[in-house]
Amino acid sequence: MKIAIMGAMPEEVEPIVAKLDNLNVVEYAENKYYEGSYHGHEVVVAYSKIGKVFATLTATILIEKFGCDTLLFSGVAGAISPDLKVGDLIIAKSLCQHDLDITAFGHPYGYVPEGEVYVASDEKLREVAKQVASQKGLTLKEGIIATGDQFVANEERKHWIGETFKADALEMEGAAVAVVCSALNVPFFVLRAISDAADMDAGFDFDKFLESSAKISADFILSMVEEIQ
Ligand code: ADE
Q: Ligand 1 pocket, 76 CB below 6 A?
C-alpha cells in the first residue's frame, strides 16, 4: 500500500511532513511532493493549493505519477450544521460540488451528464476513522461535505448550500479529489476540522483557527495511518 496524504494549504500538511521518516522531496508540475514513511507505510504528502482545479491536479499526480493506491485528505472546513463548532471533526460520507450549475438545462444543482451529484468515500477508511475516534474519546461527525471554488462568508449562501445539498460542512477541494479517486478506483477519505462557521465572521475566524484546526485534522490522519492494515 502507498498512501497519499493531501491538504490544500501548507498549514494542513506541515504537521504531517514533520513526522515522516526517510523524507525525500520531489518537485513536479510546480509543486513539491514529500515522499517518506510513517509507521511502516510508504506515504507521499502534498498540498495542492486552494480550489478544485489544483486539488484535481494534485490528486491525479499522487495516483498516476507516484502510484498511490489510497488517498487521505486532511484540512479545515466551514461549518453548516449547527452541531459543528471550531475544532470539531467531520468525515465525508459523500461529497458534492455546490458551485456546479447547469440547471438552465433542467439538471439538478451539482450534476453534469455522466457524472453524479454525490460521490461516496471509502467505507473501510471511514470505519478506521471511527475506531481511532473511539480510542481517543473524540466525537466524529459523519456527513455530506459540499465543495466549491468560493470561500463562503455569507449566511444566505451557507444556508442555500445546506438546504440544497443537505450538506454539513463546506470547503474548496474535497469533491474534486472524490471525482478523481472514484474515476481511478482509488479508495479515498476526507477529514476536516472546523475553522469557521461560513458566516460573516468566517474570514476572521479562518485566520485565527486555521493552524490549530489544521493540526487537529493532521494528527487524526496520522493516527489513522498507524491503524491502517
Ligand atoms: N474552508 C474553511 N472555511 C471555509 C469557508 N468558509 N468557505 C470555503 N472553504 C472553507
A: yes
Closest CA to 22 of 4, 34, 7, 6: 34
- Residue 37, domain extent: 2-227
* Number of domains observed in the structure of the chain: 1
In the block, cell 491502517 appears at 228
pTM flag (> 0.90): yes
Using CA positions, which residue lies closest to atom 2 of ligand 1? Answer: 77
Cβ of 148 below 6 Å from ligand 1: no
Q: Is 69 a catalytic residue?
A: no
**Is 196 one of the annotated active-site residues of the chain?**
yes
pLDDT one-digit tens code per residue, 146-198: 999 999 999 999 999 999 999 999 999 999 999 999 999 999 999 999 999 99
Cα separation, 220 vs 48, in Å, equals 20
